[in-house]
Amino acid sequence: MDSRYDIQRRAGGGGFRGVSASGSPALGAQSRRRKIPPRPADFKLQIIIIGSRGVGKTSLMERFTDDTFCEACKSTVGVDFKIKTVELRGKKIRLQIWDTAGQERFNSITSAYYRGAKGIVLVYDITKQETFDDLPKWMKMIDKYASEDAELLLVGNKLDCEADRVITRTQAERFASRISGMRFCEASAKDNFNVDEIFLKLVDDILSKMPLEVPNKELSNSILSLQPEPEIPPELPPPRMRCC
Amino acid sequence: MDNSKQNEGCTDTSTLVSDDGKNAKSVLCQRCGSKVLCPGMAQFSEKELFLPSMRKKSTISQSEGSLDGDTLTAHWLVDDMFNFENVGFTKDVGKVKYLICADCEIGPIGWHCLDDKTSFYVALERVNHA
């Protein structure tokens, strides 16, 4: 147990103090023999992708670093979450991305998904009215379970299907503007339009909110256990919805 | 990056394991080249593990009694999931989560038991090293 936490502290300890991994005393004598000591991640962030069935959540997650969009990959079979690494502002950031595909009924996604999330990507399909109509229900879940300072990004996906569009950009902008701190953009996972930008922007927003020196304790706590914690009644944060 | 494939087939560990028992090279997906581990992030470990065969998602099934697959011994042991560069985890199959490529989702390339939160195994035979 102790050694595990040592490892986590070491991994997070780089922080903003500059990440010359060779200078990390925790790596010990062994690493000095290596030509290139491993560089620990500077940040670990949990991001969840939510939205109604078929809006393209999984495609967004895959498109993030993969350059081969698979037309046949229509639904998620068995993938629980992914660890992905990005570099931004000279920092190496590990993202733990939870794609909730297959659990789209609002109440079936447990609060554990939301609780640790630093970023939430809420996706709808610009060609399907019902996926846009569902957004308030998703917002209720976010208000109920997510951290108040989680970054929110509304994504209108399937921009490649412009001809079938039923949700205008203005409609979605109006929706996003009523929620404090929510950004909005449209994207096409198929054409890789705006997809990288979505995640990088979200990560950038998260980083800009972080203190320059992140306490080690916080990083340790941000590490998710694979086994969901026992359900505890969530404390209700103040709702994000502004009064109309 | 050099995309050498010297590890395919038989597992010659001499060039892959550094003096301190860690991975001397990057660990990459065999299909898409996605980087799974940076050099020095995992410990060489011998443990007999059964992994269902690659390339057929349907073979990972809880209900089926006999699975197509291999019992593999040579693994990279990673003690923290955040030490991976890119990796995907399947949903639970019993007490096991299989590791897959985060980008092309080929797998299983590795194994993780929910009972041991600090052990993540990546089979040397199911990845490339470069």
TrEMBL record, chain A:
GO biological process, one term: protein transport
GO MF annotation list: G protein activity; GTP binding; metal ion binding
EC numbers, comma separated: 3.6.5.2
Subcellular location, record wording: Cytoplasmic vesicle, Autophagosome; Golgi apparatus membrane; Lysosome membrane; Recycling endosome membrane
CC annotations in GO: autophagosome; Golgi membrane; lysosomal membrane; recycling endosome membrane
Key words of the record: Autophagy, Cytoplasmic vesicle, Endosome, Golgi apparatus, GTP-binding, Hydrolase, Lipoprotein, Lysosome, Magnesium, Membrane, Metal-binding, Nucleotide-binding, Phosphoprotein, Prenylation, Protein transport, Transport
InterPro entries: P-loop_NTPase, Small_GTP-bd, Small_GTPase, Small_GTPase_Rab
Catalytic activity: GTP + H2O = GDP + phosphate + H(+)
Region Disordered: start-end pairs: 11-36
Bilayer topology annotation: Lipid-anchor
Cofactor(s) listed in the protein's UniProt record: Mg(2+)
Top-rank taxon, per record: Eukaryota
Annotated Pfam families: Ras
Family: Belongs to the small GTPase superfamily. Rab family.
PANTHER family reported for this sequence: LD44762P
The name this protein goes by in its record: Ras-related protein Rab-12
Organism: Chanos chanos (Milkfish)
Automatic annotation (TrEMBL), chain B:
Record-level Gene Ontology MF annotations: guanyl-nucleotide exchange factor activity; zinc ion binding
Alphabetical list of SUPFAM superfamilies matching this protein: Mss4-like (SSF51316)
Pfam families assigned to the protein according to its UniProt record, in alphabetical order: Mss4
Protein transport among keywords: yes
Swiss-Prot/TrEMBL keywords: Acetylation, Guanine-nucleotide releasing factor, Metal-binding, Protein transport, Transport, Zinc
GO cellular component: cytosol; membrane
GO biological process: post-Golgi vesicle-mediated transport; protein transport; small GTPase-mediated signal transduction
PANTHER family membership: GUANINE NUCLEOTIDE EXCHANGE FACTOR MSS4
The protein's assembly and partners: Interacts with RAB8A.
Role: Guanine-nucleotide-releasing protein that acts on members of the SEC4/YPT1/RAB subfamily. Stimulates GDP release from both YPT1, RAB3A and RAB10, but is less active on these proteins than on the SEC4 protein. Might play a general role in vesicular transport.
Protein name in UniProt: Guanine nucleotide exchange factor MSS4
Protein's organism: Chanos chanos
Protein's gene: rabif
